Q: What sequence folds into this?
């Protein structure tokens, strides 16, 4: 078999309301909507997808705590930031961090998502130590 079987991994966001989450990914982050029916949506940008599900059980779930839940690896995080900056500037203070170099070899842009957790765009800046 010459083709690989695995295609991608896709984050799955659980929310109370579908429309704010779809708008966040579509209008702010530039994702394209492929499926949006009732309480489910699938959006994609450059081969990276996100699935969003609004469901009654989310009403009782604890809101996010700004943890890392959605991580998109990108080639140039600064170019993405420059593209998104006009829209990011409209978000409340504290909803955007970076781009910033991290001690674990990534340069990251963090954006607070509608579920209260973070969407992270990261670029590898890891340098192999001389051995």
A:
């Amino acid at each position: 078999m010459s083709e690989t079987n695995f295609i991608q991994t896709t984050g799955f966001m659980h929310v109370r309301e579908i429309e704010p989450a779809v708008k966040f990914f579509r209008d702010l982050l530039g994702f394209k909507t492929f499926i949006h029916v009732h309480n489910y949506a699938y959006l994609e940008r450059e081969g990276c997808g996100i699935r969003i599900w609004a469901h009654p059980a989310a009403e009782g779930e604890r809101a996010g705590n700004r943890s890392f839940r959605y991580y998109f690896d990108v080639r140039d995080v600064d170019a993405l930031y420059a593209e998104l900056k006009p829209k990011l500037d409209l978000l409340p203070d504290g909803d955007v961090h970076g781009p910033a170099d991290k001690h674990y070899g990534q340069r990251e842009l963090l954006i607070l998502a509608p579920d209260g957790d973070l969407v992270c765009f990261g670029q590898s800046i890891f340098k192999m130590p001389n051995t």
Observations:
- Helices lie at 18-28, 77-88.
- The CA atoms of residues 1 and 7 lie 15 Å apart.
